């Protein structure tokens, strides 16, 4: 039976303070650290249009909340490995290939808007979540749709390879809603399909929907609607095969949270004007993330 976002949120609240993560240092460096030492670089996978987490600015430079975090993590790795210099090297990722990039060692950190879930943990690892969100729907401002049931018999798009796409597909089958589910190659294309009337709505993490709408030429033509269909803990992806590297990343994420440095980074991207159009999302930290950061861990109950 498909769990409601509310029941899952209750599960988060019950679970938050209960997990203690124990780490043990390996006897020798793993493949990620060996690669970093040899190259003097950390390969950072970034996204093209996951505003405000990871996207390209007007100069095609990777920017965003997750990118800022990853740059701090790179500096922590440099200090821990006692290197004079360590260069971030950016690699473009898509929803379809991001897991593969990390699993194959083509990216050391995937700095975007990726959900930590059980299926992905079979292939990659995650550090402490930097955001907790949930799937809702972007529709045209003149649309009468208010939630998932109103998409019955209509066209709903989501981005290929994402958890909201799977969640909508499952709900569609279980409830026999006859929704025509469409796949877009990236977030930007999905928004464009809604604007052009090629889809009646776009299902995605609500924070991404707000960011995508704010970046359009006329944000007033779009709106975000609906209850949370899912709860999504977004976290930076990394290799399962290097425990020492993961410990460095986990320890620095916890330090950034507990020192409140990460709160400052959050305010920079969610409550102040951001490039390229200097719009403000005006999204204060939600209660799920605020509570989760009281006891930061890489362990999530999904």
TrEMBL record:
A Pfam family matched in the record: SBP_bac_3
Signal peptide: 1-29
This protein's record includes keyword Transport: yes
Domain Solute-binding protein family 3/N-terminal: 41-273
GO biological process: amino acid transport
InterPro entries: Bact_solute-bind_prot3, Solute-binding_3/MltF_N
Keywords: Signal, Transport
Gene Ontology cellular-component annotations: extracellular region; outer membrane-bounded periplasmic space
Family, per entry: Belongs to the bacterial solute-binding protein 3 family.
PANTHER family: AMINO ACID ABC TRANSPORTER PERMEASE, GLUTAMATE_ASPARTATE IMPORT SOLUTE-BINDING PROTEIN
The protein, known as: Amino acid ABC transporter substrate-binding protein
Organism: Caldimonas brevitalea
């Amino acid at each position: 039976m498909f769990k409601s976002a509310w029941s899952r949120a209750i599960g988060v609240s019950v679970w938050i303070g209960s997990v203690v993560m124990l780490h043990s240092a390996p006897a020798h460096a793993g493949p990620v650290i060996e690669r970093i030492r040899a190259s003097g670089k950390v390969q950072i996978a970034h996204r093209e249009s996951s505003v405000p987490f990871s996207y390209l600015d007007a100069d095609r430079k990777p920017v965003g909340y997750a990118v800022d975090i990853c740059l701090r993590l790179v500096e922590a790795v440099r200090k821990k490995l006692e290197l004079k210099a360590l260069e971030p090297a950016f690699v473009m990722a898509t929803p379809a290939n991001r897991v593969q990039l990390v699993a194959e060692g083509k990216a050391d950190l995937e700095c975007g808007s990726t959900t930590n879930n059980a299926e992905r943990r079979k292939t990659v690892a995650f550090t402490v979540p930097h955001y907790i969100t949930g799937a809702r729907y972007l529709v045209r401002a003149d649309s009468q749709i208010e939630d998932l049931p109103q998409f019955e018999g209509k066209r709903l798009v989501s981005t290929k390879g994402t958890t909201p796409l799977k969640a909508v597909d499952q709900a569609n089958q279980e409830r026999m809603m006859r929704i025509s589910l469409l796949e877009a190659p990236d977030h930007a294309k999905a928004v464009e399909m809604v604007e052009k009337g090629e889809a009646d709505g776009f299902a995605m993490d609500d924070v991404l929907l707000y960011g995508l709408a704010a970046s359009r030429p006329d944000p007033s033509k779009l709106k975000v609607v609906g209850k949370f269909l899912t709860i999504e803990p977004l976290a930076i992806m990394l290799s399962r095969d290097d425990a020492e590297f993961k410990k460095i990343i986990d320890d620095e994420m916890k330090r950034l949270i507990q020192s409140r440095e990460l709160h400052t980074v959050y305010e920079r991207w969610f409550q102040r004007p951001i490039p390229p159009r200097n719009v403000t999302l005006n999204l204060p930290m939600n209660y799920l993330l605020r509570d989760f950061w009281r006891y930061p861990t890489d362990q999530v109950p999904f």
